[in-house]
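Hi L., both proteins are below.
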Amino acid sequence: MKYLALIFLLALFSFTSCKKKELEFKFTGNIKSLNNNSNLANADVKIYVNTAGSANQVLEATTTSDNSGNYEVSIERSKYETVTIKVSKSNYFNVEEAYSIDDLTTSDPNEIDYSLSPKSWTKFILKNVPAGNSGDVLKIQKVSGKTNCDDCCPNETKFYYGVIDEVVYCPNDGDTYMKFFWFVEGTTTMNGVDSIYNTPFDTISYTIEY
């Protein structure tokens, strides 16, 4: 009788352990720098969840990548519909991805790799010289460069009116080009198409004087 009871307890423990394991989402992967494919250590990985019908994200877990760029983190499977993973590191653009729980598994680790792009900047220095003219209209059209960040300059035409002495920063992915052209309306002043190679973690100045 004692033997049967022991078998029952062992079976119950085994079942409970398996069930608990099935109720966890485990995430593993590697984080690299997009420009040179090098591993990124000390990148922050945060796991957020959204319950049904709610737009509020709740932080469930956080971890950092190791010296090889690898990370591992687990969260309990509960009554939510979406899991959002946010990856960040100083001087890199953040990455954020949302996943439906239907696309995730509790039976095996969810292996998800990420690549972060190093930040760089173009510094436009805009000046009327020597004294400018209140009727001047400077037109700058950004043709290419990063657009999907909060501070990014859209790929569109911008107008600057009158006498100006202004500085405009446009972030870009490091190791890529930012292409644009500019001209002053009503004049033959034109620089044509130009482009700037943005070095990672650096600011490149470009002066327009007219």
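That was the first. Here is the second:
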Amino acid sequence: MDVKDFSYDLPEELIAQDPLEKRSNSRLMVLDKENGGVTHRHFYDIGEYLLPGDCLVINNTRVIPARLFGVREKTGGQVELLLLKRREGDVWETLARPGKKARVGEKLSFGDGMLRAEVIGIADEGNRLVRFFYQGIFEEILDQLGQMPLPPYITHELKDRERYQTVYAKYDGSAAAPTAGLHFTEELLERLRDAGVVIAQITLHVGLGTFRPVKAKKVQDHHMHAEYFEITGEAAAAVNRAKAEGHRVICVGTTSTRTLESAAAQDGTLSAASGWTDIFIYPGYEFKVVDGLITNFHLPESTLIMLVSALAGRENVMAAYREAVKERYRFFSFGDAMLILDTSKKNCDPKE
């Protein structure tokens, strides 16, 4: 399968630069995964497509202000670190710019010495292993000095950090937001619960590997970076109960999807679990757990659009993306949403 099969033309002006004033006012494209049919709605309408007993799985990871700007102590030269994942204690795997200057042994300073660091090794793809030195609590210092790690295609300044967090973000650890969840408000989630939708929370700390371009020509030659996940016994039980009772499991985001599919037994059942996953889902994959997906519109030739295509069919997805461009949907992290599921079953009463 050729990576180019997942390409599409996107006018630059359709890349959303800012979040909407109200999260749930984003547009919603509903894609029937069985026949490719498309319906245009708004995100606040999503309850019309979810049934009592359906299990909605959300990722409660929280983005850390992982971008640090500082200097090299020896020369005063500028340096930028992006924290990717904590290896152990105060050692982090980071993306350093300029990478050639961040040699092993190089000492760095941030916030006039409030936070100091030393490059102690080189990991995969040139990422730097860095040990931090500080007085106090690392998370508090990071909150003071760090900036939110917005994707490079967002050039506008983010005025409110919380707009790059879901309203249910709980556990620090991500280098990027699980953006499908940005559309939910507390009120919308409460309305879904009142309508009988079960909401299960899992955790996957999003790394930048998910968003890196696929450099291989053939899809199957690409290798995913590992990301840490946790599934509680409560979440596993909620998913298992929904499946056993004939209800649907609908994931909010590709991160939730990858977590469930990584941890599921061959028969689709889940148990409490934690660990690292590098699962790569692309067309031909047979889903064990997930019936539906809420997601954003993704970059061309990305692993994310490949996962979506595995669920709904490549031709259906690429046709839907062409329709989204034609209808001027907003794309990527702060953009509009897509709901993928079998739409033959849905609530008829819009108030539900």
